[in-house]
């Protein structure tokens, strides 16, 4: 039996769980929290003795073309396609829009905002401050070099998306 589905939806984890449950054996296929761990159709993997059953793990499949940009953003938020294909800043912005539209305001308390906000730059600033996501840079001025602490907006966007994927921002439906 082939296990086929969208990338990063637990196909390999399902096979490993069935194998552990019925055969009391360890992992037979690699798993990870990002798409593309399974790169090719693997050999058959025994998951049960009675009845004798083998499963075949497959890479995730998607249509060759997505209907629109929003579909791509939703798939990336779910981890079905790599974040860099959309951009973490775009993912964070769409996520904030979705959280606010669905009145799911748990991000407000989590990151210490005074109230819900639709300005992604302001939210990412608060996320970066709350988590200490900063880096030091040297600014050249007319009077010499000045060390400045900059907020890492990219790391803040990554954290916001990661918190969503981990379920820390509440239940959200993307469709």
UniProtKB/TrEMBL annotation:
Organism, as annotated: Eudromia elegans (Elegant crested-tinamou)
Record carries keyword Transferase: no
One GO term of the biological process aspect: mitochondrial translation
G domain mapped to chain residues: 1-69
Name the UniProt record assigns to this protein: MTG1 GTPase
InterPro entries from the UniProt entry: GTP-bd, GTP-bd_ortho_bundle_sf, P-loop_NTPase
Residue spans crossing the bilayer: none
Annotated signal sequence range: none
Sections of the chain in a coiled coil: none
Lineage, opening ranks: Eukaryota, Metazoa, Chordata, Craniata, Vertebrata
Domain of life assignment: Eukaryota
Keyword hit for GTP-binding: yes
Keywords linked to the UniProt accession: GTP-binding, Nucleotide-binding
GO molecular function, one term: GTPase activity
GO terms under cellular component: mitochondrion
């Amino acid at each position: 039996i082939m296990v086929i589905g969208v990338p990063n939806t637990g196909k390999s984890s399902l096979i490993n769980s069935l194998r552990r449950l019925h055969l009391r054996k360890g992992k037979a296929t690699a798993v990870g929290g990002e798409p593309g761990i399974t790169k090719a159709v693997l050999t058959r993997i025994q998951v049960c003795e009675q009845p004798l059953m083998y499963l075949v793990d497959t890479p995730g499949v998607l249509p060759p073309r997505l209907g629109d940009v929003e579909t791509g953003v939703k798939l990336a938020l779910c981890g079905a396609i790599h974040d860099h294909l959309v951009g973490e800043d775009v993912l964070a912005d769409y996520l904030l829009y979705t959280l606010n539209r669905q009145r799911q305001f748990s991000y407000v308390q989590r990151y210490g905002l005074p109230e819900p906000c639709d300005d992604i730059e302001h939210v990412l600033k608060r996320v970066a401050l709350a988590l200490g996501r900063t880096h030091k840079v040297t600014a050249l001025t007319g009077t010499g070099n000045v060390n400045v602490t900059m907020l890492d907006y990219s790391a803040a966007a990554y954290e916001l998306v990661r918190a969503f994927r981990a379920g820390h921002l509440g239940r959200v439906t993307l469709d």
